[in-house]
């Protein structure tokens, strides 16, 4: 028994000594010999800076997936690819003086986003750049437009520079811009001296030097001043009172001339204002035009009309059909909150004409943001009605601001007619024309009425 205990104690002591030796052992360095068929080096790249910091959406970062309602790939920031452009060398414009507005345009029309924000952000900024670019041409000379050959070279160079800074290369087709937009077209006045002789330039500059973004769209000041100047130079300097070529609704040629002359007016304003002030003013004016209409394309909603027709449709089948239809609309583009109102009203009118009498927006809980592109398949993003830009930084990539303050129910139109739709408050409507005094001759009253009608008609057609 004592022998067994002694033997066991010895074995335990040896075990303790062995563990102690193992713990204090020295590891040997083993050289790794790569196999001939395996690459000799495999290095993991460092993750992007800030990748593991708290994610900040400021306020909405668009993923690479063009259809956010579908499953997303891992959300890495998008970064533009830049390179040195190849220019013609035949454009006399100093591009260095336009770098700020060029960079802003490239960002607003970034390759992955241009088609989604073309109507609201990209194309308004492109049009503003075109006006400023035209004003920068021969700024020391007497001409306000490009010569045709020079316009071709300069336009191609401008698009190349934008593409080299990350902009979408399809800008000309997307925004319907071309080199001819820089030439003044059929406008008879293209030089500075004649322009300033014909136009009341002090009035024009006062009206457009500081455009109010809250009032201009409903109580315009700059827009009528631009139209008035365009009408004046479209007549070649002849008085509107005695010219038989006054453009009207029945004269397509006259309307085209006024439209071309508006480009000349914009170019003159670009010379008188800083590029920043001109860009701000032109973007506000574009915003007024953009927010007047719905840019979405609606296919015939026959399936909705079939399920929702009448005064008491089945909520299950009707809402299922409506949701399916709206989900296809949500892949088109980003729109503003005002455009969403127009789109909801337009689509509701289409349904009413087909016999849908019930407010199915309320029945199916349809909000305004349901008409815009969806963010991560959960909620729509409505852009603000005021001009906005795409913002780029090295952490979040491209981002833009969504107006998601609340869930506003889509308005169901009171009738199938859109004639009563107005986004301006009653106090913002134009005042009634003053009643002329009895001492004023009937001829003077008629002339004044004709001039007012001309400016109003052209403003309605062009703005």
UniProtKB/TrEMBL annotation:
Transmembrane spans: none
Listed Pfam families: At1g61900, SPARK
Keyword field contains Signal: yes
Q: Which residues form the signal peptide?
A: 1-28
Is Endoplasmic reticulum among this UniProt entry's keywords? Answer: no
**Every SPARK domain range:** 88-230
Q: Which InterPro entries match?
A: At1g61900-like, At1g61900_C, SPARK
Alphabetical keyword list: Signal
Residue ranges of domain At1g61900-like C-terminal in the record: 292-365
Q: Which GO terms describe its cellular component?
A: plasma membrane
Which protein, by its recorded name, is this?
A: GPI-anchored protein
Task: Write down the species.
Answer: Canna indica (Indian-shot)
């Amino acid at each position: 028994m004592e022998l067994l205990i002694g033997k066991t104690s010895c074995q335990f002591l040896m075990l303790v000594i062995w563990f102690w030796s193992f713990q204090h052992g020295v590891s040997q360095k083993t050289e790794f010999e790569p196999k001939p068929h395996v690459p000799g080096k495999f290095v993991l790249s460092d993750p992007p800076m800030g990748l593991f910091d708290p994610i900040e959406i400021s306020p909405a970062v668009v993923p690479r997936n063009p259809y956010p309602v579908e499953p997303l790939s891992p959300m890495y920031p998008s970064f533009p690819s830049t390179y040195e452009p190849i220019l013609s060398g035949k454009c006399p414009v100093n591009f260095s003086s336009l770098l700020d507005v060029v960079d802003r345009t490239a960002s607003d029309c970034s390759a992955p986003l241009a088609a989604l924000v073309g109507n609201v952000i990209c194309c308004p900024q492109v049009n503003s750049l075109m006006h400023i670019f035209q004003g920068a041409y021969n700024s020391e000379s007497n001409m306000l437009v490009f010569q045709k050959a020079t316009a071709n070279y300069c336009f191609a160079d401008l698009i190349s520079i934008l593409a080299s800074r990350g902009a979408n290369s399809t800008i000309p087709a997307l925004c319907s811009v071309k080199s001819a937009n820089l030439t003044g077209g059929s406008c008879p006045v293209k030089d500075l001296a004649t322009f300033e002789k014909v136009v009341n330039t002090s009035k024009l500059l006062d009206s457009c030097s500081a455009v109010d973004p809250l009032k201009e769209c409903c109580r315009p000041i700059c827009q009528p001043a631009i139209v008035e100047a365009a009408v004046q130079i479209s007549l070649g300097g002849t008085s509107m009172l005695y010219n038989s070529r006054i453009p009207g609704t029945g004269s397509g040629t006259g309307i085209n001339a006024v439209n071309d002359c508006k480009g000349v007016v914009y170019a003159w304003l670009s010379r008188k204002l800083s590029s920043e002030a001109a860009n701000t003013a032109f973007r506000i004016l574009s915003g007024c035009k953009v927010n007047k209409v719905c840019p979405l394309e609606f296919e015939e909603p026959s399936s909705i009309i079939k399920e929702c027709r009448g005064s008491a449709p089945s909520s299950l089948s009707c809402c299922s059909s409506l949701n399916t239809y709206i989900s296809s609309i949500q892949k088109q583009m980003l729109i503003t909150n005002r455009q969403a109102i127009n789109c909801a009203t337009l689509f509701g009118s289409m349904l009413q004409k087909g016999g849908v009498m019930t407010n199915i927006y309320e029945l199916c809980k349809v909000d305004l943001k349901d008409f815009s592109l969806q963010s991560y398949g959960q909620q729509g993003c409505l852009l603000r009605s005021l001009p906005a830009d795409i913002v780029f930084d090295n952490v979040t990539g491209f981002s833009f601001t969504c107006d998601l303050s609340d869930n506003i129910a889509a308005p169901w139109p009171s009738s199938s007619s859109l004639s009563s739709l107005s986004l301006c408050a009653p106090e913002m409507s134009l005042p009634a024309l003053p009643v002329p005094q009895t001492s004023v001759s009937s001829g003077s009253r008629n002339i004044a009425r004709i001039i007012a009608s001309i400016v109003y008609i052209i403003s309605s057609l062009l703005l």
